[in-house]
């Protein structure tokens, strides 16, 4: 454990009343940090009092330091007491006295400014954070045709503000702490007090506090450390870059974890159906939203099973095909030297390579490579008699189906299971197809997220089962969705009043 805290033992000392000792200490601990600004001043009109100002260039608002801190200190007189100095001179509301070096150094590296005074065994920490960020931009991964267009960015405070803007309720709580022994990354746990389960909130905080690693740089890293069952390809946390989706989750009693430097918020607990829900489902008419969801569930089945199904039929059970279609299949495969399973695997791997290349290439070039590369590779492979035209169609339909699912991380599970089913079908034909899907469903029904079944509401029970299915494959009209999901706190599931209720 010492390797994770190699520097921390140096920071346990208290701040000295001797300014020179504090300066030597800071020079030693922050040696070779050339982005650190350290300046000693004689302040007050009499210039008798000495202070030492420390901050990191690039993480602070320099204009604020000059106008609200340095200028008043150089031009105004003040008393010797700490209380009079604190409230009379510093023109900042967000400030506090600190008494140990660990808090001082951590505050400096977090973008605050620390003032050390000669003759005082305390220092003042002033919030002067001004991190470089992208600003609030349009969501590029979870695109919606209707509804708000803003998205999270890498600033923790901006992200919490985007959610607070949507939920103006005093019961929306924000618990902010740090994780990572060296990175000391800020994170915030957000929840609505009377909707979220206290046990889930406490469990999340305890699990994060138990993480002992040198650095956390993104919510995706935090997710992997929190995962209990790492043997499943399905995500156990929902990552979203849309503030409206995060706010909607909080209103259902879920908990949001926001990590500084990450443009994604993490929502939990999760069920499989939340990955099929898009933000604009709730901004469109229910008929349109229901049709879109049905298409997504069909797309999920095709993305996983279509290549394997083709392998099973073409290799083991061609007799189930109508004669004209069978003749077309035989004609298309004429001259192809590889078995069907090799054809499918070659084309699937080629399309996966094109997809990965399209993601890594910048801007419009990525989309161009994906389209043109797919056409060229597919046409060239057919003309060279390496694959048949039907395999190209099957692989293309599989790729289109996977793109129809609104959550990219969830789609990654289908990309892996697709190859699992291809192998199963290559060995056992249609029996392997059904056995493969049976294994997937058994695995899904065993998963839980903080006590909530992953396949909810399929596994819903009791009198709330009808209500649970109102926001599943079929999205009922909003006026009929009177109850929140099962993971809401007991006694707080009603979201709107009953008809005829005058309250």
What is the straight-line distance between the termini?
57 Å
Kindly report the spatial arrangement of strands forming the biggest sheet: 1-2-4-5-3
Helix count, DSSP H or I runs of 4 or more residues: 16
Report the sheet-strand fraction.
Answer: 5-15%
The helix fraction, in percent, is 40-55%
Family: Belongs to the GerABKA family.
Protein name: Spore germination protein
Transmembrane segments: 294-316, 386-405, 417-445
Pfam families: GerA
What does this structure look like?
This protein is 44% helix and 13% strand. The protein has 16 helices and 12 strands. A 5-stranded antiparallel beta sheet has the order 1-2-4-5-3, with helices on both faces. Strands 6-7-9-10-8 form a 5-stranded antiparallel beta sheet, sandwiched between helices. A two-stranded antiparallel sheet has the order 11-12. Helix 11 packs across helix 13. The two termini are 57 Å apart.
Which features would summarize this protein structure in a list?
transmembrane helix; transmembrane; membrane; Spore_Ger; UPF0353/GerABKA_families; 503 residues; five-stranded antiparallel beta sheet
How does the SSE layout of this entry go?
Elements: H1 19-29, E1 36-43, E2 49-56, H2 62-75, H3 82-88, E3 95-98, H4 101-109, E4 112-117, E5 123-127, H5 156-166, E6 172-179, E7 185-192, H6 198-209, H7 219-226, E8 238-240, H8 243-251, E9 255-259, E10 265-268, H9 286-315, H10 323-332, H11 340-360, H12 363-383, H13 389-403, H14 408-428, H15 430-446, E11 448-449, E12 452-453, H16 465-468
Antiparallel strand pairs: 1-2, 2-4, 3-5, 4-5, 6-7, 7-9, 8-10, 9-10, 11-12
